[in-house]
Design goal:
The chain is an alpha+beta fold and 243 residues long. The protein is built from 13 helices and 5 strands. The chain folds into 3 domains: 48 residues; 96 residues, no CATH class; 68 residues, no CATH class.
């Protein structure tokens, strides 16, 4: 290994990283430990700010870092489909073979993951992260270094936390909300697309507001987040929203 940073210099770097409060590392010891791991793997210690997250006091790897490591180590990924409902990809490595991995929103719902805000607001990103983590772990686990990716750790940490009375009440009230009527949904969808196209609200902000009164299915959420790409359709939706 070349260009090893002396331990004394690592301590100074770790203090700077922790004191900055920019990277989720709450103290010098956390930053220093991760710098030692990075250096042992042949990376510059400063790369910890790009490659790691601290979730509930545990070190995890960022998903983009795991995918990059996998590809740098000779792995390949072919994406077949990536939406709010499914992440489907084939992972291959000469040392681990080839495997097609699929994660669906339905699968996540069965695992009781989709009630969390990260799944409600960013289902595509969460499915992508889970697909990458499981696919690479099966084909070439060295790319993960024995760690979880951040999204896995977030779900695990949330599952381990005790549910407060307040949180239980909020969850129960949300479950009691009616499903959004199909007819009303079909009528209002172009108007919502228009609001999103106009820049007045993002899709996630709009969904958060609407879900205070009713619940949506995963398919409905997918439709709201994916307005028509055709310019004429989008323009028509925006005009209808302004009418």
């Amino acid at each position: 290994m070349s260009n090893i940073v002396p331990f004394h210099d690592l301590q100074g770097m770790a203090q700077a990283v922790a004191a900055s409060n920019l990277f989720g590392m709450k103290n010098t010891e956390q930053a220093l430990a991760l710098m030692l791991v990075a250096q042992a793997e042949g990376q510059h210690p400063a790369t910890i700010t790009q490659d790691y997250d601290i979730i509930q006091g545990k070190a995890t790897r960022k998903t983009h870092s795991v995918l990059a490591r996998f590809q740098q180590m000779g792995g390949q990924v072919e994406w077949h489909e990536l939406t709010d409902l499914i992440a489907d990809a084939t992972f291959s490595h000469k040392a681990g073979g080839k495997l097609r991995m699929t994660w669906t929103f339905e699968q996540a719902a069965k695992a009781k993951l989709t009630g969390k805000d990260n799944w409600k607001n960013y289902p595509r990103a969460m499915l992508r992260a889970r697909c990458i983590a499981e696919g690479i772990r099966a084909v070439y686990p060295a790319a993960l270094g024995g760690m979880m990716v951040s999204e896995e750790a977030q779900d695990t940490a949330a599952a381990e936390q005790p549910i407060t009375v307040e949180a239980r009440v909020v969850s129960e009230r949300a479950a009691e909300l009616p499903m959004y009527p199909e007819a009303d949904f079909a009528e209002n969808l172009p108007k919502w697309w228009g609001v999103i196209a106009s820049g007045k609200k993002s899709a996630d902000d709009l969904i958060a507001m609407l879900q205070t009164k009713a619940r949506f299915t995963a398919e409905q959420l997918h439709e709201i987040r994916n307005p028509p790409r055709d310019e004429n359709e989008a323009a028509g939706a925006e005009q209808e929203a302004q009418a």
